[in-house]
Amino acid sequence: MVEELVFKARILQSALPYIREFYGKTFVIKYGGSAMTEESLRESFAKDVVLLRYVGIRVVIVHGGGPKISQTLEKFGIKPHFMGGLRKTDEDVIHVVEMVLSGDINKDIVALINKYSGKNIYAVGLSGRDGQLIKAKKLDKEAYFKSLGLEVPEEDIGYVGQVEGVNVELLYALMEKAYIPVIAPIGVGDKGEAYNINADLVASHIAMALRAEKLIYLTDTEGVKDKEGKLISTLRKEEALRLISEGVIKGGMLPKLRSALEALEAGVKKVHIIDGKIFHSILLEVFTQEGIGTEIVE
After folding, report:
1. How many domains are contained in the chain?
2. Global pTM?
């Protein structure tokens, strides 16, 4: 029994250098994939976030919700339609997107974190429309598709947006009072209109605006892999660009990696792509020497 307790104490002690290094720093976490849907993983995530905040790390969460949006659209008799990974978002669809992201999903995450947060630390839910948090404009369709090497579609993508600016004063004010902002990736245009924005890109822009210490993507994959399919534990910018040019990086990993490189160029210290299907994946990546996923560095 004593040996087991000593072992636990050593584990806690091994985290001390990392706690000391990251105290007072900001982590932006993109929350998505299975970690959002499996109950045991959801609870693991919530506990990790609360622990980070209690050891002095400021945490901002940006969440997705694509599968839930598609399910809800189908209930309303609207067939989901995608172009190059983007959801075509007409006037009917944007109402459903906002309802699901800013309503159901956002408040569910907030309630789960607050279940474990105790006193003095609370999660608070926000849409990008709250306090002009995420200023947006319609996505430049031509530039987006060409950047991915795809043919530009003729049809209109609707209310799909790109980030124009972030109201960091609002986020700083909340974090100063020990709140954990939980953000739905809805942007607001000049006329108050809502825009559906890719959550990976929103997380990246918020990390850049806050000059975050870390940007962490929770995914359903181990991390970035080389052409042999082996996990790359540390990926430097030059190697990442080479993997992209050689076509090794593709699919959903491509926009994540591009946004990661953009974040690094803007001053974010490190970007992590980790497997959210592993219990306490955030703690394992942040508080151990080995880590579990891919860290991307300048």
Report:
1. 1
2. 0.92
